[in-house]
Amino acid sequence: MAGFRFQVQKEGSGSAGVTIAIGLFIAFGGILFGYDTGTIGGILGMDYWIKEFARDEDENGMKFIGSADKSLIVSILSVGTFFGALLSAQVADFFGRKHGLMISSVVFTIGVIFQTAATEIIILVVGRLIAGLGVGLLSAQVVRIRRYFQDHNISIRTGTHERQDTGSYRIPLSIQFVWALILFFGMMLLPETPRFLIKRNRFDDAAKSLSTLRRLPPDHPEIIAELNEIKANHEYEMSIGQTSYKELLSNQSGFLRKRLLTGVGIQVFQQLSGANFIFYYGTTFFQSAGIKNSFVVSLITNCVNVVSTLPGLWLVDNWGRRNLLLFGAAGMFICQFVVAIVGTVSQSQAAHNTLVAFVCIYIFFFASSWGYVDSIQTL
Description:
The chain has three domains: about 15-190, Growth Hormone, Chain: A (Up-down Bundle); about 195-240; about 245-379, Growth Hormone, Chain: A, CATH 1.20.1250. The chain is an all-alpha fold. The chain has helices at about 15-25, 30-45, 45-55, 65-95, 95-115, 120-140, 145-150, 155-160, 165-175, 175-185, 195-200, 205-215, 220-240, 245-250, 255-270, 275-290, 295-320, 320-345, 350-365, 370-375, and strands spanning about 55, 65. Strands 1-2 form a two-stranded antiparallel ribbon. The protein is globular, with a radius of gyration of 23 Å. A hairpin with a 5-residue loop joins strand 1 and strand 2 (about 65). InterPro entries: MFS_dom (IPR020846), MFS_sugar_transport-like (IPR005828), MFS_Sugar_Transporters (IPR050360), MFS_trans_sf (IPR036259), Sugar/inositol_transpt (IPR003663), Sugar_transporter_CS (IPR005829).
C-alpha cells in the first residue's frame, strides 16, 4: 500500500540520492497549479484589483466584481487543464518526458504573460485559459504532490494586498514566472527517461540515462537487468495493440473499467467536497461574513492545509484508503453543518471565531484524506 515510507537500498545497488533529488525536482512542477490555487482567491479580494477590473456598479455607484465574472476567472483555468490533460500523454509520448515538461512550461509562461499584462477581464481570462492548458499538460508528467506547494504564495499575497497600484496583483501573478523558468531550465539538466529512449530504439542512451539515475556504470548487471525489464514491458505492451476508451469501458475490460471509474469517481467527489470554495473564494467569503483581516484568515487556512497533509501520509498506510476517505467525509460533513448554522444564526465575534475554527478543522479533514488519497487511490 502506497504511503509515507522510505526504504534504503542494499549496499552495492547504487545510490538513490540522485533519483530522489530528480523526483523532488520534477514534482516541483506541482507548484504551478498549487500557486495559482492559493493566489487567485486573494487577488479577487484586493481593493485595487476590483477597482481596475470591475465591470458592474451597485446603486451607490460603487464598482464590484459580479459573481459571473468571478466564476469565469476562477473556473476558466480548469477548462484549460481539462484539454491539456487530454493532450498530455500524446505530448509526452511524442516529445519525451523531458521535452514534454519543457513545452508545458513554455505554454504556462505564455499564459502568465497574458495575466500579468492584463488590464481587462477578457485578457486575464485568456491568460488563465492558456496557463490552464500548460498545467494540464504537466498533470500526467509530474508527480502529483501539488497540495504541498499550494501555500507558497502566502507571504507575497498577504504583503501586497494593501498596495494601491498594479503591483498589488501583478507581483503575485508574475511570481509564477519563477516556477515555470526553474522547471524549464532545470529540465535541461536532467536525463530523458529510459523508457522513452527504449521506445525510440536508443538503447545506449537509455543505458546512460539509467546509469545516471542509479549511480552505477552502464555495464553494471543491475542496469542491464533493469533495461531488459523495461524493454520486455514495452514489447509486451506493443504486442497487445492499441485500444479505445469505448473498449476500456466495455464489459470485457472488467478490472480496468472498475479501476478507471474508481479513479474518476474519487476525483469527482473530491471536487464536490467543497474544499476549492475555500481555496478560491476564501478571502471573499470571509469578507462577506464580516470577518476582519480576511487575508490573514486565508493565510491561516492555507497553513492548515499544508500541515494537515502530513498526517495523511501516515494514516493511509495504517487505516487504508477506504477508511481514511470515510473518516475525512464524516469530519467534513460535521464541519460544514456547523459552519452553515453559525453563518445564519449569529454575527457576533464568537460566531466569527467559531466559523473560522470549523473551516480550519474542515480543511484538516480534507487535506489529511481526500486531498491526498485521491492521487493514489488506484495505485
